[in-house]
Give the backbone structure.
Amino acid sequence: MAVLFVSVLHFIPGDVNAIVEPFRAAMSPGSALVLSHATSGTATSQTEEVQRLYQRTPTPLQLRDLAEVQALFGDFAMVAPQPGAAPRPAGAALVPVSHWRPDPEDHLAVEGLPASPFLASFLAGVGIKRAAVMTEQPRPEPAGQQASRRTGRR
């Protein structure tokens, strides 16, 4: 199972974790949470211009910082953005959307184009829900054994 929040959360004002958390909680271990979000971390004049344009729409852009976006993954294990790369530490798990597993042909085709400062602040990540850690709980005794132990009779 996968839950995709791709190019949507930055149009929602307020606490988006209140939206994402119930989905994380309902997901089975091994499920993927895929998320992309425009961020304020590398805001440039181009980012500010895009934000001004969206302010004129019914869905203004809500830029959040890297820590806020990373927190949306909760305790999920972050997937490396490049195949074969080592797992990434928290905070380093989000990358610009154009760096998320690009096809070699596509990556080569855009190398000559100038990089978009706005896309540099548009981050993506994938987290996998970890298996729950089970601790052994004491098993309840059958009712007859509880009574005999209290009275000392068998």
